[in-house]
Write a structure and sequence with these properties.
The complex is a heterodimer. By secondary structure, chain A is α+β, with helices and mostly antiparallel strands. Chain A is about 50% helix and about 15% strand. Chain B starts with a helix and ends in an 8-residue tail after the last helix. Classes of the chains: A alpha+beta, B alpha+beta.
């Protein structure tokens, strides 16, 4: 129905609509820096026209709703890439940290220490009776051991630190999933009357993208607008208004097990391999796969090193002979065969013989050979020394602290272990330079450390004689620097270089991936912002636009008012 | 594309961040002089550097080993050179004394000279280098040559034709200086018939003649001789008494490493280079016999000693030649290692050191980019429609 009041009514609607436009613009401007905010706009439509004599007559403007500018596809892709970015970010940070422990670009790295150790053995070979040379070998051996220890220790600590991060990360994931489920409930309630809950949906999207940074997930929006979130292996984290928690435990083999707590108290272990992307995945993989592989390589190197040096050292003799000697490795039970008694290098013992020669007052007196085979127990070895036709009179063997101890019977005597092709000395840690069996436990034998004259630079001749100028064993020890050892048949230096290089490459790769995904995320973020972001210039333009429209609508009221005035004045 | 506030500001931040990162890295490489600060920057180069560093360290060590080798060989060489000089002096003396123009007292005096040679050879043979006795094999802690107990030598016989005399020496010497007993048969005949006289100064003065006894005859200071057979007047024999020099070292070669697979013997075993092993080329024995023959005033035996000295001289000369060759080998190796080290140092520097010119250039480029970025960012940031709305 046309008429003056219709004009007023059109003006009122227009005023209200433009006012709403200003309000929404204000909301946009206010949230220009709000994370996850999607720009909103008022959806104006023309009011239904009424039939009139002259045809359908427009009745002004109508607000159909407030929409947010949002592209679900770009957002989904952004979440996925953010997930991978977070994974590589974490991975790169951890690997960079681990690589720092093996930073060989600085001096004093393991590589240098290896060189120094072998150099000091060469110096000892140049001057086998030199006290200074002996001290230098021991000092370098200690430094090298400590370098191994500290690196092993740092790897263990790194794993502990990663474990400390796992708990809070899982808690955060649980918090996000709970929030998302709660937001879904609120959204369903709010939207029951058919209106979009723009800000709640923005908030939910934000939480989903934060969740994706922690763990790789896939999202699915149902027809009713509710969102389901599941892990890559299909287990749901959020299903509608319900969320499921994750938790973890450390299993006996020191690996973290991620557990999904399903409905009704059910639970399921999620294999790490089934995860993809997100900080948690990187934490777990670094802790339980990447770092252990380097720990293993370092341990292998330490083990090869201990074995090779001890094997050679045990064949030699120092400036002084022993009055007593005790093994550094313990058997679990002296009655068990040596090969199965828990000795770290027990598998090295083979059938062979151990020569022992006795000096009296510094002159060779007697010598004897003990037959060894891996099926002998420690008790058997003790018996065969004590009942030996020659040696039995001069030596007493015993089991002390579950290892072999040999002592002289007469204080004028001393004895040398002159050649051992059975490796029992290596197995029991007698007349060895290093103790321990891996990078963490590697240490210098306290017997030698206390008395550098026991550092075996020489060897015992067939007639039992030995001399201070003998450098044969020192030469053989120094030659280990270039010997191919271990399962990979590499020199120590080469093995270590391989370790450093593969660690460096892995860190480099993670760093490269990180910057690749960083670029991708930036690009996708720009695409998302192109749709959803707020542009102040645009909002200001809109503000002016709505202001002018409002002014015009207000003008319409005053025009209508004037028309009324004119009409009413007719009656005067 | 729609450009929003978030796009503008995050791109400004990201770009500045990247440039700052680059600046920091270049600055660190200039400040530290090292191209790489972390192994992940170039794992392959860092790995190669580890190998090169190991090689360089090893090369330095082998150079140090070569120093030791040079010291030992030079010390041995100079000791044996000294000994050769003494041997040559001894030969010259023997040459003189083998002729008949010298008398007994002159030969006695020469014998004292030879005693001096023996002591000098022993002293030189016990030379120490850096506290080690270099001629003792592995037994470097004690002098290789020491004087043994007094020993009565077997007689050196000079019989007239038709004589069937035999003499066997024995007894334990109780005197305090080395000497040679010269025995001459005065009256012919065997045990109980023949007579002999004894001199301890090369025949300048004699004891009164004594009848050859059955069993041992005492010559003085515990030295004994048992006569046998039938003697002719004028038969002579001499018995020397001295403390032989004995070798106390062992026969081991002292080796050092010249490379990962090559080793070199840097010592000479004293017993074969000098003596003390009572062998044919035992210089101490040769000199002692020389001295004995001088004390016995026996030019013919002096001649024999001269031959032996010559033979020893030839032996020691060949050892000197061998040591000289070893020194050459050391010098050659030194040169090889010096070159290798130069090359390694160059490669390490190439791979691991910052190229300052390049880095400074890069820094300048980045600096310019950073300034340009700051300038354009500040311009973009300050633009707003608000400034134009009234």
């Amino acid at each position: 129905m046309s008429g003056l009041s219709s004009i007023l009514s059109t003006a009122t609607k227009s005023l209200l609509a433009e006012q709403l436009g200003v309000e929404v613009t204000g909301h946009n401007i206010a949230n220009v820096n709000t994370q996850g905010y999607s720009r909103q706009k008022v959806n104006f439509v023309a009011e239904l026209a009424v039939p009139s004599f002259w045809g359908p007559l427009g009745m002004g403007v109508k607000v159909e709703g407030i929409e947010r500018a949002f592209d679900p596809f770009i957002t989904a892709r952004l979440n996925e890439k953010n997930s991978l970015l977070a994974d590589y970010q974490t991975r790169a940070a951890v690997l960079e940290q681990v690589a720092a422990y093996f930073n060989e670009t600085e001096s004093g790295g393991l590589n240098d220490l290896f060189s120094q150790f072998f150099a000091s053995l060469n110096d000892l070979a140049d001057n086998p009776s030199g006290a200074g040379e002996r001290q230098t070998v021991l000092a370098n051996a200690l430094t090298l051991s400590e370098a191994f220890n500290s690196r092993a220790d740092q790897l263990v600590k790194e794993r502990m630190m990663l474990l400390q991060e796992v708990g809070p990360t899982i808690e955060q994931i649980n918090r996000y999933t709970a929030h998302i489920a709660e937001l879904t409930r609120q959204i369903v309630e709010t939207e029951a009357n058919g209106q979009a809950a723009n800000d709640l949906r923005d908030k939910q999207q934000l939480e989903i993208s934060e969740l994706a940074k922690l763990i790789g997930v896939s999202t699915y929006t149902a027809g009713d607008g509710t969102i389901s979130i599941s892990l890559p292996n299909g287990l749901p984290l959020v299903a509608g208004v319900q969320s499921f928690n994750l938790t973890y435990q450390v299993n006996p083999s020191d690996k973290v097990e991620l557990i999904w707590q399903g409905p009704g108290g059910t639970s399921e272990i999620i294999p790490i391999d089934n995860l993809s992307g997100g900080k948690l995945t990187a934490l777990l993989q670094c802790r339980d796969e990447i770092i252990p592989s380097y720990q293993q390589e370092l341990d292998q190197l330490a083990q090869d090193f201990i074995l090779a040096v001890n094997r050679q050292h045990s064949q030699g003799v120092g400036l002084e002979l022993f009055s007593e000697i005790k093994g550094t490795y313990q058997v679990t039970d002296p009655a068990l065969p040596l090969s199965a008694a828990g000795l770290p290098f027990g598998d090295q013992i083979v059938t062979g013989s151990l020569n022992i020669s006795i000096d009296r007052d510094g002159e060779p007196l007697a010598s004897g050979t003990i037959a060894i085979n891996p099926s002998l127990s420690l008790n058997d070895v003790v018996t065969s020394i004590n009942t030996h036709a020659v040696l039995g009179a001069y030596l007493t063997a015993s089991v002390e602290d579950n290892t072999l101890k040999i002592e002289i019977n007469f204080s004028s005597d001393s004895f040398a272990l002159a050649g051992d092709d059975s490796q029992i000395l290596v197995g029991l840690g007698i007349n060895t330079l290093f103790t321990g069996s891996n990078a963490y436990t590697l240490d210098v034998n306290a017997w030698v450390l206390d008395n550098p004259n026991l550092l075996a630079a020489g060897q015992v001749d067939a007639d039992g004689s030995h001399a201070v100028g003998d450098n044969r064993n020192a030469l053989a020890l120094a030659a280990l620097e270039d010997a191919a050892v271990g399962p990979k048949k590499l020199t120590f230096s080469d093995s270590y270089q391989q370790l450093v290089m593969s660690l460096g490459l892995e860190a480099q790769n993670a760093g490269d991936q990180e910057s690749f995904y960083q670029g991708l995320v930036e690009q996708l973020t720009q695409m998302r912002d192109a749709v959803s972001g707020v542009s102040l210039d645009e909002e200001l333009t809109n503000l002016v636009k709505f202001q002018r429209a409002y002014q015009a609508a207000a003008r319409l009221v005053s025009v209508a008012d004037e028309l009324y005035q004119t009409l009413l004045a007719l009656r005067r | 594309m729609r450009v929003t506030m978030a796009t503008i500001f995050s791109s400004i931040q990201n770009n500045l961040q990247k440039l700052a990162e680059d600046l920091q890295r270049i600055n660190a490489s200039i400040a530290s002089g090292r191209k790489y600060q972390r192994i992940s920057e170039s794992p392959v180069d860092v790995g190669a550097l580890l190998g090169l560093n190991k090689d360089a360290n090893q090369t330095s060590q082998y150079e140090r080993n070569l120093e030791t080798a040079k010291g030992w060989i030079s010390a041995t060489l100079s000791a044996l050179q000294n000994i050769t000089d003494i041997v040559q002096a001894g030969s010259a003396l023997a040459n003189q004394m083998a002729t008949g123009t010298y008398n007994a007292s002159q030969r006695q005096a020469a014998a004292q000279q030879v005693q001096g040679y023996i002591e000098e050879v022993m002293q030189v043979g016990n030379t120490k280098f850096r506290g080690e006795h270099i001629l003792a094999g592995f037994r470097t802690d004690s002098p290789p040559f020491v004087e043994g107990d007094w020993q009565v030598q077997q007689p050196v016989m000079h019989l007239k034709s038709g004589s069937s005399g035999t003499a066997v020496s024995g007894g334990v010497y109780t005197g305090s200086s080395s000497r040679t007993y010269l025995v001459e048969v005065v009256g012919e005949g065997g045990t109980g018939v023949g007579t002999y006289k004894v001199s301890t100064d090369g025949g300048q003065s004699w004891t009164d003649p004594v009848v050859i006894p059955a069993g041992v005859a005492a010559l003085g200071d515990g030295v004994e001789v048992t006569f046998g057979g039938t003697w002719q007047a004028g038969d002579r024999f001499s018995i020397s008494v001295y403390r032989p020099i004995e070798y106390q070292g062992d026969n081991h070669d002292f080796e050092i490493a010249l490379g990962s697979t090559s080793r070199m013997v840097i010592n000479e075993v004293g017993s074969s280079a000098v003596g003390g092993d009572q062998d044919k080329l035992d210089l101490f024995q040769i000199l002692a016999q020389f001295k004995g023959s001088l004390e016995a005033n026996d030019p013919a035996e002096v001649g024999v000693s001269l031959e032996k000295l010559k033979a020893y001289e030839a032996h020691v000369t060949s050892i000197l030649a061998k040591l000289g060759a070893s020194l050459d080998r050391v010098a050659m190796k030194e040169e090889v290692y010096a070159n290798l080290k130069d090359e390694l140092t160059r490669q390490i520097s190439d791979r691991g050191d910052t190229d300052l010119v390049e880095a400074a250039n890069l820094l300048k480029t980045k600096e310019t980019a950073y300034q340009a970025s700051l300038l354009s960012s500040s311009k973009v940031m300050s633009m707003s429609l608000m400034d134009y709305l009234s």
